[in-house]
Amino acid sequence: MSYWLPATAAATLAAAMVLAMAQTAAPPPSAPASAPLAAKPGPRLLTPTEQRDSASIPGDLRPEERVTPQIVIPLRKTAPPPKPQRATPRRGAAASSAGIDDSAARCEAQSSEQAREACRASLVKKKSPPPQPR
Prior knowledge:
The protein is an all-alpha fold. It contains four helices and no strands.
């Protein structure tokens, strides 16, 4: 029985190699199952000569349809009012019509009542208009 052992081992090894080769061999070519049957071929690419012959001058092409103008819809009922001009504050004697008279404020800022009265009296003298001749 020992003389059959090497022959049996060789036969088993040969059978294993044949099975391994059969599994790694590529399957026979067949039609792909995922490809659609009625697929249209894509557009044919133009050769450089055909591209040159079908080229157009820039700016010569026009749109196929007439262009619709854009419409601007105002969101307000009327135009907004113009912003008021800010008056620059005037200083000095002309500031009396602007609201606060600086000279009167200086008089009121005096520390004593007598100084305030004297300052007010001098303001009345300066502001009184000269008598008009008749």
